[in-house]
Amino acid sequence: MSRLSYIAIALISSIFLLSSCFTDRSSLREVRSEPSRSVYDDRINAEGLEGVWEDPETHDLHTIKKLTDGYEVISIIEYGNNGAKVEEMEVKSTLWKDHILSWSYYVPSTGYNVHFSTRLLDGDTLTVEWSNEDGSGGEKSGQETLHRIMSLSSFSPGRDNQSDEFADGNLRPAGKVYKVNDDEVIVASRLAGEIFDVGDILFCLVDGQKVEMTVVSPMQTVSKCLLTADSLKKGLKIHEEMPVYRKDRQ
Known about the structure:
By secondary structure, the protein is α+β, with helices and mostly antiparallel strands. The longest helix has 31 residues. The strands form two sheets. It has a nine-stranded antiparallel β-sheet, with no helix packed on it. Strands 10-11-14-13-12-15 form a six-stranded antiparallel β-barrel. A hairpin with a 4-residue loop joins strand 6 and strand 7. The chain is 16% helix and 45% strand. It has three domains: 35 residues; 102 residues, Avidin-like (Lipocalin, Beta Barrel), CATH 2.40.128.30; 73 residues, Beta Barrel (Thrombin, subunit H).
């Protein structure tokens, strides 16, 4: 083989080796620039976290309030199947840092200390990481999804226009007003098909007074209601997003 042939082979080998190096580095750059997206890597965006969030496992309502520099959890309340307050948790701490909201609370009835951290917000669905300690050293953890049932502006226990009966959140809102058309009211609730029956009496609070309506057509997530004659006589106006409560069945 001639000297020229040896030079050509060496040159081709060098080009191939150099090309391989560049390819590997390019792949490495792609991996670094697009890391795998896990729930731990995501951050809650700076808007849209405020509201009343339901834990579907325990039916607790976590109320999150927006601050000038983030968010805080202001209350956690457990309600029974009849809508009455069962227990109010003691919020021990709440922290907004790096677009993650974390909060810890104490459950008086069980002695558990529970910790939540937000991971992924998608509209009215919030993925959280949780852990709890049972007081004897045992600890569990996991991940679950909270559902926003209404905005905080429409549900605020203790606001001035509520009667004393509801001033401390003693009754759980069963849904919210979705649409009003004369005497017809459409009530939205994620569990409408399960918790509302034909003939149930629902009501809103306006200036401390009850504006009642009767369920005439319960569906999966909304229910058609008609204002009662007495409520129509009062002339009190209800509007969209107002919390709706259900009267106990007799």
